[in-house]
Amino acid sequence: MIKMRKHGKVYNRMTSLVVLLTCMNITMIMMIVYVSWCLNNLEILYIKVRIKPGAHPKARA
C-alpha cells in the first residue's frame, strides 16, 4: 500500500511535468510560428515600400 501510494505520487509528479513540458512546447511552437509570420509580413511590407518609396508605413504610424 505504502509503495503503491509512493509510486502514485511519483506518477502524478511525472504527469504534471509532462503536461508542463507539452504546454511549454506548444507555447514555443506558437511563438516560432508567430515570429516567422511577423517576419514574413515585415518582408512583404519592406518589398512594398521598396516598390513604392512614396508610401512609408513607418511615417503613418
From TrEMBL:
<keyword id="KW-0472">Membrane</keyword>
<feature type="transmembrane region" description="Helical">
    <location>
        <begin position="12"/>
        <end position="37"/>
    </location>
</feature>
<protein>
    <submittedName>
        <fullName>Uncharacterized protein</fullName>
    </submittedName>
</protein>
<keyword id="KW-1133">Transmembrane helix</keyword>
<keyword id="KW-0812">Transmembrane</keyword>
